[in-house]
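In the previous chapter we treated chains in isolation. Here, by contrast, the input contains four separate entities that must be folded as one system, with a combined length of 432 residues.
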Amino acid sequence: MARNKHPQETVNLIINTAYRLFLQKGYDHTSIQDIIQHLGGLSKGAIYHHFKSKEEILFAVMDKLSEGSYQILLNVKNRKDLNGKEKLKQIFKDSLNSPIQEELFVVTPSIGKNPIFLTTMLQETVKEGVPECVLPIIEEGIKDGSIHTQYPNALAEFIMITVNIWLNPMICECTLQQLYDKFKVFQQILLGFDLDIIDEEFLSRLLELASIRQNM
Amino acid sequence: MARNKHPQETVNLIINTAYRLFLQKGYDHTSIQDIIQHLGGLSKGAIYHHFKSKEEILFAVMDKLSEGSYQILLNVKNRKDLNGKEKLKQIFKDSLNSPIQEELFVVTPSIGKNPIFLTTMLQETVKEGVPECVLPIIEEGIKDGSIHTQYPNALAEFIMITVNIWLNPMICECTLQQLYDKFKVFQQILLGFDLDIIDEEFLSRLLELASIRQNM
DNA sequence: AGTATACATACCGACAGTCGGTATTATAAA
DNA sequence: TTTATAATACCGACTGTCGGTATGTATACT
């Protein structure tokens, strides 16, 4: 294939192709050959010209994944009409409602069967999601008096991990009834911290997403 | 090497060797050749005679790992001097104090960098640990009046995942101070369910285990 | 024109897994 | 007890596939 005048298009093509395959078949079970075949004429040389390893493609895919969440955060963070607690609630709501979430749920058979994704997600949550997103907002909430805790960092980590792992139907697969129960338990826990940040709207969207997977 | 009259010994040798290597170097970075080299004369044929794939060796290793927890459970489950809540507390205590835990902490550099282990552990927790171990005891606690919840299954899952993932220093690596904070948050959460099942003794053992890893 | 870039292609070593073969043990009939 | 037969334990060369590299070539930029 002739060389592309706009190489970024080739990079995006590779990332998008890998993105789809990684989510569908899992990172381990997607070979470079697989990616090449879905690239439409491009060869191995093209891939290794733009990426130095398969793992680097994974990182690019993960970046693409977290991009959406980061946008949501920024939008909420700068709003002046919400206090810390309200911002937290808004972030959870927006995250669940984002089209990326929907796409993820439709495309991915089971992240639980995609070990590297799970691990990377867990680490990104703790090393980036918490310090860059949730923690600053919790601290803001502490300052404005809407959130009370002695352990903002631990609380932030706890909430993120619980939502991203335990409440995530892609990871901890369960029936809709069980998911409902899990929501109730989590809601009760958060109320123990005076955090009324997940409501019936959150629940129904969660169930909606989960039910996508029940019919597959 | 001459054939062994007691083939189970060979199987155990393979499992134990793989066990050590998988924990030390990770499943992905342990090759069959690696295992063979630490087997003392046995060959690839021997391995594939007893196991049909590398993954099957992994399953055997995971079984060996959960064996210990299962024993602890059985010991506690049959005790007549404890109610449900007390049994729960005892199980957590015994689990942390078991020599297997200690060995794990000493030998394993980071389960977080061992994706398959993490995934398998998560799935085993939900599919076996909860229904076979924690849930029956919580239900016992509900019957004897020591535990109160509308959602025993969700609560069991929540506790197990939080302890096994978030509070696990092998997975969510953090400073001792952060681990202390996390303990406090989790303790507060459990108290919200009237579950006073982790105490200062649990904490100090947890910190002790975690500090093993700090000095590596 | 000359250089840097965007690819193509032939190739490499490592890997998991297979297969035909051999040596040892278990079984059981003579 | 001996001997024929079968089953098991193991060996090691081989295969296909994998991620990754080295090198060649055509196109775009300066």
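Chain B has two domains: 1-52, 62-214. The radius of gyration of chain B is 19 Å. Compare these points with the single-chain example from earlier in the chapter.
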